Amino acid sequence: MVERNCREVKVREVRFLGTWDEPSDFVELTLENPGWESYRPGQFAMLRAKLWGLELPWGRPFSISRVDAETVTFFVQVVGRGTSRLARLRPDDVVIIWGPLGNGFSAPPETPTLLLAGGMGIAPFRGYIENHPTPEFLHLLFAHRASIDFYPYSSMSQKVRADAVQEHSADDLPDIIARIEAAMDEYSGGLVLACGPTPFLRTVQAHALKKNIRAEISLEKTMACGVGACLGCVCKDGQGKHVQVCARGPVFSAAAVQI
Amino acid sequence: MIDLRVEFAGLVLKNPIITASGTFGFGLEFSSFGDLKRLGGIVVKGLSLKAREGNPMPRVAETPCGMLNAIGIQNPGVEAFLRDKLPLLPWRETAIIANMYACTVPEFGELADTLSGEEGVAALEVNVSCPNVSQGGSAFGQDPAQIRKVTEMVKKRAKGKPVIVKLSPNVTDIASCAQAAQDGGADAVSLINTLLGMAVDIRTRKPTLANVMGGLSGPAIKPVALRCVHQVCRKVTIPVIGIGGIVSAEDALEFILLGASAVQVGTANFLRPDQSFRIVDDLPRAMIKAHSDSLHELRGSLKLP
Questions:
Q1: A105-218: CATH topology
Q2: From the centroid of its chain, how far is CA A220?
């Protein structure tokens, strides 16, 4: 599963192609394609706007949402200094990008596959659905807090079987967890892929291990380099050893990682 | 064609740009972003005798124009480095400098013994200045007598390989630490390691780093680094390698003007992973800006009032 990181990866400077209708905490960020010929959904890229200068020394890691011949798209939720600046980019602003990084999700054909997305964790599944050889075998279950209009859900639900469930308050959690577990049981003979906040991933991981379901989970960590060098984004593998999420993940077999 | 070659402490480098320990992995992580052979040198991630898992997460935090880290010398151990990494590095073309971390003086000696037996290791850098470990590290680096003892031990076991002592800025008088390294037989000193710092999250009311404190690096510390290099260059006769906040060829020349023989580029490798290669490419242009075509002429040419 592990594709060695960074074999052909270069740093590129590309233009921001979008415009914003109005300020939002959820934005679709479309950039010029940096010359990527292929990628594996679940992989990510580091982005750093050129005009950040030295004030923000790190790039920011984002899951690649989709790629076509001309563009590459990311979904960004504004949570801090980097994302708030990315959400204010202006047309033709230059973004420094290095990727695709990391390993990506498995995509076996003709395998019943459940896609579990929590909030912004929906991002990689857009490209996953578009690139999958047998999308009729896919089922998306999307759990979210903010209005569904903020997410690219509707375009995805036209392509595959899809269900969405909104968490209005913490009281909804037991029901949502029950739905996730029931869906996983339905796919116990296939494959479960999950991307979302850590508590969401813990739920998926615990159930996968309990029921011996093949599952892959995509982790999110603060990263400085994105290429395996700084050792700032480690998690523990199945043996309790620190491994870099950027270079050894971000997608891990649920049985092979401690979260 | 400007000659960028530098020679000091028994090392011959094709240019004065060296990547700093802990910011460039084992070099191999960056091989798609540029030709490693174009770098003057690579200081690999700090090595200990046995593998270390390092500190708990979170380990890094971005700060204005800088960052904090408390990795805690996570590394696969010296044997794994020699077996799995060194043979893949272009050590015939680019100086591979082994950064060593240990908790005791005899352990430093053992590490020096192992590493200096390798043809592919150009020099040893002694880390007596890591702020993120409970034993060794700064505990050595804050006491000139200990610096001298560690240096003597490493030098004795280095089989003639150049010994570079990496100094901490978290001291009252860094020049006397450099003097202690020189007295212990060091071939060069490199400075500065990170400044001890801290970040706090008011929402959780917790320190941002699990280790509570960490080392500050990046452009924010460059003025402190320049001051330290200036003080050390005026004190010792051995070569000095300047480190601290270098992100451009101009920054590198600032340290060379103070008297540094070479520089190390650290946090800038996170700005973008090809940054060190870009600095190498940009050096001739920056030298023209400084009205010089010779690093030798620039070195130590600072005009003091």
A1: Rossmann fold (3.40.50)
A2: 8
| Per-domain boundaries in chain B | 6-298
B53/chain A closest Cα distance in angstroms: 6
Q: How many CB atoms lie within 10 A of CB A157?
A: 16
With CB atoms and an 8 Å threshold, state whether A57 touches B219. Answer: yes
Give A30→chain B minimum CA distance, Å. Answer: 20
Q: What is the pLDDT of residues B152-195, one digit of tens each?
A: 999 999 999 999 999 999 999 999 999 999 999 999 999 999 99
A10-101 folds as Elongation Factor Tu (Ef-tu); domain 3 (2.40.30)
What ipTM, to 2 d.p.? 0.95
Average pLDDT value for residue range B189-212 = 97
Q: Residue range B189-213: average pLDDT?
A: 97
The answer for A 194-253 residues in CB contact with B (under 8 A) is 221-222, 224-235, 241-242, 247
Q: CA-to-CA distance for B45 and B29, rounded, in angstroms?
A: 12
Angstroms from A102 CA to nearest CA on chain B: 12
| Domain layout of chain A by residue ranges | 10-101, 105-218
Name the DSSP class of A112: -
Q: Residues, chain A, total?
A: 259
**One-letter identity of residue B109:** G
Q: Which chain B residues have a beta carbon less than 8 Å from that of A96?
A: 272
For B6-298, which CATH class? alpha beta
Check CB contact under 8 Å for A96 and B272.
yes
Parallel, antiparallel or unpaired: strands A94-101 and A44-49: antiparallel
